[in-house]
Amino acid sequence: MPLTERAMERFKKALHLTTPIIALYDAAPDESFAPMVEAKGRACSFCYYPNWLKGETLVVRQAEGGSFMNPTNGCPGLQSHLGFQKQYPPWMANFLTDGKNGAPMGEGLKASPELAQEWLEKINYPEPSGDTVLLGPLKLAHWEEVRTVTIFADPDRLSALMTLSAYWSSDPDEVQAAFSSGCGMLWEVFHSHRKDRPVIGCTDIAMRKYIPPEIMCLTVTPGRFEQMVDFPDDAFLMKTWWNDLMDSREKKKSS
């Protein structure tokens, strides 16, 4: 069933959702995506969260210059996880761990460079069709160009989104929490899935400073999102106990 604005409003109303729903588009920018902002320097994609709140679309262009430490079109991880660059510096495993082997720093994210290198070698990069990828408010007119949908939410709504995304499955591991950069969870990790699995995101420590402390996110494929939006009337989102939770939160805010 094709997505409609009416179905989207029902979905957001049932979730009591006021935070952004962001699509990743494998597309070239044009005026239909306006207003737009360009990824510059080494900025993290999530530092544009305030722009998404204002309805702006982030344009990430394939870098044609710069270096790992002095990038030109967003951080080097973003360029890699969007499929524009497929090679890291030889010291990348050390960058993620101990800072040795000429790495400019060590992030201490894995127990050893060997483990970090194993993770790097498992990355299955996406293949964008052009030299731009867009991140911005979901526009149904561009549905065919959407590759993933990301819904930002607090823990209450994230719980509901996780439950809804697994509503049609008996697999207890239907939803995954992958190890990756924040931007890696927006598209790249889906190329390493054993199947279509929703991804709990916003767990990258480095990107969390750019979003409110209570915000997490769930990223899904377009097909999964269509299914979620078309949830049946007897699903939990229409039950009293879900709305009681939302009402109790609102009462606590106003008291």
Structural description of this entry:
It is a single chain. The protein is an alpha+beta fold and 255 residues long. The protein has one domain (5-86, 125-254). Helix content is 27%, strand content 14%. It is built from 8 helices and 7 strands, in the order αββαβαααββαββαα. The protein has helices at residues 5-15, 49-53, 76-81, 92-95, 113-121, 155-165, 222-229, 240-254, and strands at residues 21-25, 36-38, 57-61, 132-137, 146-153, 199-201, 216-220. The protein has a 7-stranded mixed beta sheet. Strand 2 (36-38), helix 2 (49-53) and strand 3 (57-61) form a beta-alpha-beta unit. The longest helix has 15 residues, at 240-254. The mean pLDDT is 93.
The share of residues in extended strands comes to 5-15%
Poorly predicted segments: none
How far apart the termini lie comes to 42 Å
Q: What's the number of helices?
A: 8
Helix content: 25-40%
Report the sheet with the most strands, covering strand number, pairing sense and barrel closure: 7 strands, mixed
Strand order of the largest sheet: 2-3-4-1-5-7-6
The radius of gyration is 19 Å
Mean model confidence by pLDDT: 93
What characteristic shape results from the CA principal axes? globular
Number of folding domains? 1
Sheet/helix structural class: alpha+beta
Write down the secondary-structure element order: HEEHEHHHEEHEEHH
The overall strand count is 7
